[in-house]
Each structure stands twice: as C-alpha cells, then as structure tokens.
Amino acid sequence: MRRAIASDIPEIVRITNLAYAVEAFCIRGERTRPKEVAHLMEVGMFLVEPGGSGLMGSVFLRREGTRWYLGLLSVAPDCQGRGLGRRLVGAAEEACRAEGGKFLDLTVVSQRKELFGFYEGLGFHACDVLPFREPEKLILPCHLVKYTKALVPAEDL
Ligand SMILES: CC(C)(COP(=O)(O)OP(=O)(O)OC[C@H]1O[C@@H](n2cnc3c(N)ncnc32)[C@H](O)[C@@H]1OP(=O)(O)O)[C@@H](O)C(=O)NCCC(=O)NCCS
User: Fold this and answer.
1) Which of 57, 84, 89, 140 has the least CB density, counted as fewest CB within 10 Å?
2) Residue 16: which CATH number?
3) CA-closest residue to ligand 1 atom 22
4) pTM score, two decimals?
5) Is 86 a pocket residue for ligand 1 (Cβ < 6 Å)?
6) Contact 149, 103 (CB under 8 A)
C-alpha cells in the first residue's frame, strides 16, 4: 500500500470505473475520469495497492477539519473477495489517524444494500441520509447513506 502519485491516475480511473460498473443498474455513466482524479489528488490523496500489471485497489481520502472523508473505494473485480477492501480501509484509517483525524466518514448509495454489512463489519455505523448529488444520472431512485467511524477512543474525541 502506498500513496498515489500523478502517474497512477490512468490506473486509478481504470480500476475505479471497472469496480463501480456494479452500480450501472442504478446510476448511468462512468464513475470517474482522469480530470476528476487529478483534481482529487490536489485536494486530498489516494492510497493504492500495486499489483503485477497495474493497480489492484485504490481509495480516496480528504481532510474535513478533524474529520476525514473516504471515497471511491475500489478493488479491481478480479481481486475482490480476498481481503483487499478491508486492508484499504484499514490503511486509510491509519493514514487519517496519523494526521490527527478523529472520525472517518463515507457515503453509500442507498440501492447498494450489500455494502451496509460490509461497512458495518469494518466498524462504521449509519448516521445520516443525504440527497444524491447528481440526480440527472439516476436510473432508479437513490439517496446517500452516510456512515461514520471514530478513529480514536471516546475519551480523546
Ligand atoms: C466493496 C469492495 C471495496 C470490497 O472489497 P473486497 O476486497 O471485495 O472486500 P474484502 O474481501 O476485503 O471483504 C472485507 C470483509 O467484508 C465482508 N463482506 C464483503 N461483502 C459483504 C457483505 N455484502 N456483507 C457483509 N460483509 C461483507 C467480507 O466477508 C470480509 O469479511 P472477513 O474479512 O471477515 O471475511 C469491492 O467489492 C469493490 O470495489 N466494489 C465495487 C466498488 C464499490 O462498491 N465501492 C464502494 C462504494 S461505497
């Protein structure tokens, strides 16, 4: 696991769009493009897991005060189900804690109910409901379920 650099952008875009193809039943269009990833790299950072012929996984992190936001968690489809998603989230938590982060937040599209158990298994809990930001892309009705996890013991919050 390492922090991504600009030359990783094409691979981050490739594996993110491959991984998020699972959302094509409810959201139209590709999940991201090089310009967006380049911008996100300026306002935050990606952690990536290199593999034999490219990247196997990536995740975006951005500071929001003492909170951090985790987004675009992606494991290449042929690498899923082997613990890499769990390791990416664990590495993300470590990186945020090292920068003084106290909470890690993320959102899940409401149609992706299988992800609720995934994030709850990693210690997150649902804390809010938000509107989907690009309603013109929706094929089915969707909102965002916000999940959060404390990164430090309650007495240090
Ligand atoms: C979601 C995603 C990142 C998970 O990565 P992964 O490498 O397949 O997941 P892991 O193998 O690390 O699984 C981690 C744990 O979650 C569990 N898990 C996986 N799916 C689950 C589910 N539907 N419900 C409950 N637990 C689940 C696994 O059993 C595993 O637990 P274990 O370690 O105790 O066995 C990956 O499937 C992906 O990239 N999906 C497409 C993009 C996406 O949906 N991103 C998130 C958008 S919010």
Assistant:
1) 140
2) 3.40.630.30
3) 118
4) 0.95
5) yes
6) yes
